[in-house]
Design a protein that fits this description.
Number of strands of chain A: 14
Strand order of the largest sheet of chain A: 5-4-1-12-13-14
Oligomer: homodimer
Structural class of chain A: alpha/beta
CATH architecture of the largest domain in chain A: 3-Layer(aba) Sandwich
Strand content of chain A: 15-25%
Order of helices and strands of chain A: EEEHEHEHEEHEEEHEHEHEEH
Helix content of chain A: 25-40%
Largest interface: A-B, 31 and 31 residues
């Protein structure tokens, strides 16, 4: 029995600047059904507000409060642990970190900085990680790649892995597939983990992450999905659907 | 009994633009003794000729033929396997790859591209790796970091790890700590592996790599050496010396 739904955004609702066929209608039907839902994303190239605006332009009707991001989880963690982070994130996300004390950093926070993943910026982050054994390494995701309009592209996980390898420090992951991150989203829905279905196109971050956190999961064959990804699912009871429309049809039938 | 010596370059003979104290003299004494030697480096920011010229300016007297690089090993591999590589290397190394057929690539070759490790260049390499399961991934090193004049800096290993993580493909490593690479250098000296001492500042790439290939090894406390590195040596019979001068003193006494 499914009482709540978590939906990934990029590759599930849209790719690049285009909504996936049937996705607008699927979200609309979900809103009319008596099921809690929330959009859960590791996208750290944009703020929640910017995500909401783009979704609106694509025809989706989504409340700002229904978007749960790795960035908000990271900000919570930084405040609770009173960290002074060196921040390497996308320039559109700077404002989210602008009120933090970042002098004499005792942590490095990594987001998907895209073109700002230059050698120099990565090296600066590396040197801060190497300054002191106690310096914390926080990353807002561990995704390998995502689907852009012109093909697969390197995601934050690759650069997290690079700094982990060089520094010998394991990053604390704030986004999917972190169990804590899924459980925070489940809490937001007011459900138990086993009552919640995660719908995503990333077999590792979305599907296996959710399953390991005790949720149900559905892999959709859109976005970054590649043939054979279903063979990488870590349990036998996951669902597979052609797209988010088919996944929600099956649920509401 | 030591009959041959392999010496690492950066961090052992020099750091940045400065020779390490006693290193020029140590190489000079080695030349006068009846011991084969060879300089073995993963440095892929420069050609062997450029390395030789800089060493000469620093006061070292070293023959071009005595420098064995990851780049020459990679070029051999590419020719033997008739690969058409997409090459992401330092711009000073382009000429070394200029005669290869690189159309319709069936391999990616990674060197230490330094500032050319941009998001876009890494993403291009990633997309070629993902095109086809048979596309080979060759990297000219797996070093985590190296010592520059202004501090530790990210080395090729970090970017190799990033592309391995994202693509799910394991790189074939052409430089240290690859066993094949050490054995090629040993062959060049005309010795048996157990007769050869490797002197280096990188506990993983130089020391443990050499020990695993059946050589002797000496860790020097210069360059990228950090306190506690000696505890990371994988066997009990490695040597430790303050610098290359002390290591060669001990050997020639």
């Amino acid at each position: 029995m499914v009482r709540g739904i978590l939906l990934d955004l990029s590759g599930v609702l849209y790719v690049g600047d285009t909504a996936i066929a049937g996705a607008v209608d699927a979200v609309s039907r979900l809103r009319q059904a008596n099921i809690s839902y929330c959009f859960i994303t590791n996208t750290t190239r944009r703020t929640s507000l910017s995500i909401q605006q783009s979704l609106t332009e694509l025809g989706f009707s989504i409340k700002l409060d229904d978007i749960f991001t790795a960035c908000s989880a990271a900000l919570d963690y930084i405040r609770i642990h009173q960290l002074r982070p060196h921040v390497l994130v996308h320039r559109d996300l700077y404002q989210e970190f602008s009120t933090l004390d970042v002098r004499n950093p005792n942590a490095v926070v990594l987001g998907d900085a895209a073109e700002d993943f230059s050698y120099q910026n990565l090296n600066t982050a590396f040197r801060i990680l190497m300054q002191d054994n106690t310096t914390e390494f926080i990353s807002m995701g561990y995704n390998r790649y995502f689907m852009e309009a012109d093909g697969l592209s390197l995601d934050l996980g690759a650069f997290t892995a690079a700094l982990e390898f060089a520094s010998g420090k394991q990053a604390i992951i704030m986004g999917k597939p972190s169990k804590d991150f899924f459980l925070q989203a489940v809490l937001k829905l007011g459900c138990k983990p086993e009552q919640v279905l995660m719908i995503g196109d990333d077999v590792e971050s979305d599907v296996n992450g959710a399953l390991r956190a005790g949720l149900q999961a559905c892999l959709v064959k859109t976005g970054k999905y590649q043939q054979g990804d279903e063979d990488k699912i870590c349990t036998a009871n996951a669902q597979i659907a052609d797209d988010v429309g088919a996944a929600i049809d099956r649920l509401l039938r």
